[in-house]
Amino acid sequence: AIDHFCALADVSGAIPKLKNKQYKDFHITYEEWKILKLVLCVLKIPRQAQSTFSSEKVPTVACILPTLNWLVSEWEDMAFDPAFGMVSEAIKMGLKKINK
């Protein structure tokens, strides 16, 4: 849908024109889509951890350390998984921040 929009928006009279750019400049390549899918997988982990912290039915203080340990473990696995090679440095930087 994004690529379709970028391809057609510049010729559409219904969409406002951009200053010094064209919508086609925002086209996402196949490689960029692959990276975005990996980033989505990586970011699902802290989202799940955050949802554990914000639970109203369970005392969350008792869950903090096990949840953080789980997050670190998941990210460590991803950081050394060849499938996540394109984003492994970013994952390692995230782990470095968590371990401060």
Low-pLDDT stretches are: none
Shape: elongated
DSSP helix fraction: 55-70%
End-to-end C-alpha gap: 40 Å
Structural class: mainly alpha
Order of helices and strands: HHHH
Helix count, DSSP H or I runs of 4 or more residues: 4
List keywords for this structure.
elongated, 100 residues, mainly alpha, single chain
How does this structure look, described?
The protein has 100 residues and is mainly α. It has 4 helices and no strands.
Compact description:
The chain is mostly helical. It has four helices and no strands.
What is the strand and helix layout of this fold?
Blueprint: H1 2-9, H2 30-53, H3 64-79, H4 88-98
Helix pairs in contact: 2-3, 3-4
